[in-house]
TrEMBL record:
Any GO BP: endoplasmic reticulum to Golgi vesicle-mediated transport
SUPFAM superfamilies the record matches: Ligand-binding domain in the NO signalling and Golgi transport (SSF111126)
Protein name as annotated: BET3 family protein
Cross-referenced Pfam families: TRAPP
Length: 170
């Protein structure tokens, strides 16, 4: 990769980091919101991620053959999709073979620039609003590829992020 392309990519990633942080701040004005408003704002952020995920899936799978089953789709998300978005594969994938998948990223890129002087529980509380968008992205990708699901996320300080995907029968 040429130096120019590398610099351009770093600028794009820096711009996204800033926009992502500002989106979360905009939708999570916690001091001035009731619990119902907080839930609605989180839902809007997740919906933005969902639409983003659907678009990305369209772009990344345009020239691929159809997937044969749900596990193939999940493996695509863990390898190809994750590599495109986060420049690495998911660190761990577990399944119960009954429609539940757990994806673990031990160094979630979008948390790498975050820090906290408070304890682990406070850090967890601070980063939870930042999980709505990536959960939406994952749900959007999977929806576009034919898997109806719910996606929940949890974080273990300092940067481990765990996404739990539960498929829903149509």
């Amino acid at each position: 990769m040429s130096l120019y392309k590398q610099d351009k990519r770093q600028v794009c990633e820096s711009c996204f980091d800033y926009i992502f942080i500002e989106m979360v701040h905009y939708f999570n004005d916690i001091d001035n919101s009731t619990d119902k408003e907080k839930e609605l704002k989180s839902s809007k952020l997740e919906q933005m991620g969902y639409l983003t995920g659907q678009s990305l899936a369209e772009r990344l799978t345009g020239d691929r053959s159809r997937f044969t089953d749900n596990l193939d789709v999940i493996k695509f998300v863990c390898k190809d999709f994750w590599s495109t978005i986060f420049k690495k594969q998911v660190d761990n994938l577990k399944t119960n073979h009954k429609g539940t998948y757990v994806l673990t990223d031990n160094n979630f890129k979008w948390f790498s620039k975050m820090s906290s002087n408070s304890g682990q529980e406070d850090f967890k509380k601070e980063v939870l609003p930042y999980l709505s968008f990536p959960c939406g992205i994952i749900r959007g990708v999977l929806s576009n590829l034919g898997i109806n699901c719910t996606v929940l996320a949890d974080v273990n300080p300092p940067n481990q992020c765990i996404f739990q995907i539960k498929t829903v029968k149509s």
